[in-house]
Amino acid sequence: MIDELLQSLIPLSSPPSGPGWNHASMVELLGDVPLRPASVLIGLREGVQPRIILTVRTSHLTAHAGQVAFPGGSRDAADGDAVVTALRESEEEIGLDRTLASPQGYLDCFETISGFCITPVVACIDASARLRPSPDEVDEVFEVPLSFFLEPANLRRYVMEYRGRQREMVEFVHGGHRIWGATAAILLNMLERMKRA
């Protein structure tokens, strides 16, 4: 299962630079505006049943409060590349020791209505890694089996209206957590690259 995912990734040697796979729909919503680079970590916790690491953002944040998200954020000038950003943000948000993360490749870039172009970095996380949420940014860290996302019945599609336009959306619901928005869209891209969607 992990091998199937890893074989579908964009190699570390060829990082994607954008535009995002959803660029056309974002131009319709936002216009052709400059986007800020950001990076998220799709952490695959190794073990008998590999799991994807997710967070719940704290309720007091000004953007995406209370939403399920991958650890990640804006690229700092000192970061250099998407991998460094993803590992730095994961260390800050969930206490992930970067020496226990082994980057494997990328998913396609994704553009958000909040004005970011996100590069998703996929990394294998050692089973022994201890994670602790930073209370300033994260209320909870939880893990979902990779197999859950690979089960077609767990992918829910719906349509929502945004700025007078109909948008096709996807979501997953696991253990009381609603996974939607950019996080669900990035997971959909993972499934599409694996030819599972």
From TrEMBL:
<keyword id="KW-0460">Magnesium</keyword>
<dbReference type="GO" id="GO:0046872">
    <property type="term" value="F:metal ion binding"/>
</dbReference>
<feature type="domain" description="Nudix hydrolase">
    <location>
        <begin position="34"/>
        <end position="168"/>
    </location>
</feature>
<dbReference type="GO" id="GO:0010945">
    <property type="term" value="F:coenzyme A diphosphatase activity"/>
</dbReference>
<keyword id="KW-0464">Manganese</keyword>
<dbReference type="Pfam" id="PF00293">
    <property type="entry name" value="NUDIX"/>
</dbReference>
<protein>
    <submittedName>
        <fullName>8-oxo-dGTP pyrophosphatase MutT, NUDIX family</fullName>
    </submittedName>
</protein>
<dbReference type="InterPro" id="IPR000086">
    <property type="entry name" value="NUDIX_hydrolase_dom"/>
</dbReference>
<dbReference type="InterPro" id="IPR015797">
    <property type="entry name" value="NUDIX_hydrolase-like_dom_sf"/>
</dbReference>
<dbReference type="InterPro" id="IPR045121">
    <property type="entry name" value="CoAse"/>
</dbReference>
<keyword id="KW-0378">Hydrolase</keyword>
<keyword id="KW-0479">Metal-binding</keyword>
